[in-house]
Amino acid sequence: MANAEPAARPDEKILGAWILRTIYSRLTTRPRIACMASHTAMQIAEVLGLHRSQEPRAEESSGQPYLDMFLGDCRRRLFWLTWSLNYLLSTEYGLTPVILSSVTCGLFDDGPGTHSARLVSLIHILKDGFQGSQSAVEPGDVERQIPQIQDLGTGPAIFTLFQAEVCLSLMRRILSVTRVISNPCQTTTVSIIKAALSEIPNILTKHQPWWNVLSVPFQTVCVSLALDNILILPLLPDAMERLQSVTLAYDSKLAKEALSTAHHLIIASRQYEESKTRFKDLAVASTDLNFAQSGIDFELLCQSPALESLEEWFQFTM
């Protein structure tokens, strides 16, 4: 056993296989399985030293420098895509991503028709929004990351879905500490999510079963119900329609669970609101107040500073 050698030494091909395994696991099973695979991929990337920058060697051979630059670019792409998957899947499932020390690997540029570098930039926005502990988040700190998602511009349908997924993750981060979210932030969020929901039918038509087609509408329902205001609740019908379309298209257990859970969450929220409305109706019914006979100037009452303050409060919370 002292001289035992592993069947295969880790190399870039092994790492690529673990990246594919991570994606396949996320597409076909529970998120925690994909998280475990992505953690393993990150450890392999560290063993290979991909997180450290490597200067291309200057060789006299005319082809060697180009080859080194090509391999260096491949190594950078491998590392940052591995890191992006790990960070996205970990935050999605509420786990801690793998954090490597002394990361000096440089970023890479997108080639014609590719969007990998923008995806890495998108995950960096997510990372910036998850800095610090939950209790240390100040109102507005995470909100500043939301417009940056939109600043990345448009792309293919799957990139639009990833933008929405990151946006929803940041919104869940905000909602974990406060329900007070500015209207501009909510408006931007609605715009990002609407764009993603509109792309889901196209992805279904192309038979591209990315996990976002299920997670984005489901998380949209959860975030909309948590905020529960007039700005974001209009997303609910489209989100449920997309959930049902995905369930009909793939007929998987996870899709059925997501649709059923979202449906019951909406019913529970509606019942809660109906209960509150009944108490308000009882309060109104218990007071037989006739403004015409009471001598109260109703128009003057509506202009009172107290009522204006209440109206401002409603506008702020809505």
> What's the number of helices?
13
Task: Please give the radius of gyration in angstroms.
Answer: 25 Å
| Biggest sheet descriptor | none
Give start-end ranges of low-pLDDT stretches: 310-318
Broad shape: elongated
By helix and strand content, what is the structural category?
mainly alpha
Q: What's the mean pLDDT score?
A: 83
In total, the number of strands is 0
Portion in beta strands: under 5%
Elements, N to C (H/E): HHHHHHHHHHHHH
Could you characterize what this model shows?
With 318 residues, this protein is mostly helical. It has helices at residues 12-28, 31-47, 64-93, 116-129, 146-151, 157-175, 183-205, 212-227, 235-250, 253-285, 291-294, 298-302, 305-317. It is built from 13 helices and no strands. α6 (157-175) runs parallel beside α8 (212-227), α7 packs antiparallel against α8 and α7 packs parallel to α9 (235-250). The longest helix is centred in the C-terminal third of the chain and has 33 residues, at 253-285. It is elongated, with a radius of gyration of 25 Å. The N and C termini lie far apart (67 Å).
